[in-house]
Automatic annotation (TrEMBL):
It holds the Pfam family CM_2. One of its GO terms (molecular function) is chorismate mutase activity. Residues 19-100 form the Chorismate mutase domain. This is Chorismate mutase. Its EC number is 5.4.99.5.
Length: 100
């Protein structure tokens, strides 16, 4: 860290215009970081469960991917979160495919 970065106020580091807002932002960022850690853990758990499903499907002679199920997932996320939910679901499906 440069000496300039060390001398910045909390308000300057957060982009806030007051120390009060900077404090609020700092606390909220800490909470977001914790939520991100939980989300990452849940995604990893989803990937593991998906691998079990894929293995069972393949072992039974089926295909790795069930397109109708993927459409259900896309619809669920889209209904809950709108268009960005569809993009999020696509990313999750991509992460969970082909891990077996």
């Amino acid at each position: 860290m440069t000496s300039t970065a060390l001398t910045k106020t909390a308000a300057e580091r957060t982009g806030a215009h007051t120390d009060e807002a900077a404090s609020l932002i700092g606390g909220a960022r800490t909470r977001i970081d914790a939520l991100d850690d939980r989300i990452i853990g849940l995604v990893q758990e989803r990937m593991a469960v998906s691998a079990v499903i894929q293995e069972a499907r393949i072992t039974s002679g089926g295909r790795r991917v069930n397109l109708s199920r993927e459409m259900d997932v896309l619809s669920h996320y889209s209904d809950a979160l709108g268009k960005p939910g569809t993009a999020l679901a696509m990313t999750l499906l991509e992460l969970c495919r082909g891990r077996v």
